């Protein structure tokens, strides 16, 4: 499973060499989001953890789409 993940990440890096974490203060924001998710998992609050994960992924997706759009123009 780890090998598969690493292969997919390597492929992703070929197609999108810039990280969404390089935009503004996204690195710090992302770390904060991950910490909140971990906190809610520890508290066994799966509903809130799930909500936070969905928000985190949606933010990353929106940033990635903006990055792709800026490459096209």
Question: What's the tally of helices?
Answer: 3
Question: Considering DSSP H and I runs of 4 or more, what fraction of the residues is helical?
Answer: over 70%
In whole angstroms, the N-to-C terminal distance is: 37 Å
- Sequence stretches where pLDDT stays below 50 over 5 or more residues: none
Strand content: under 5%
Outline type: globular
Structural class: mainly alpha
**Average of the residue pLDDT scores:** 88
Q: What oligomerization state is this entry in? A: single chain
Please tell me about this protein's structure.
The chain is mainly α and 73 residues long. The chain contains 3 helices and no strands. The chain has helices at residues 2-15, 26-42, 46-72. The longest helix has 27 residues, at 46-72. 0% of the residues are buried. The model has no long low-confidence stretch (mean pLDDT 88).
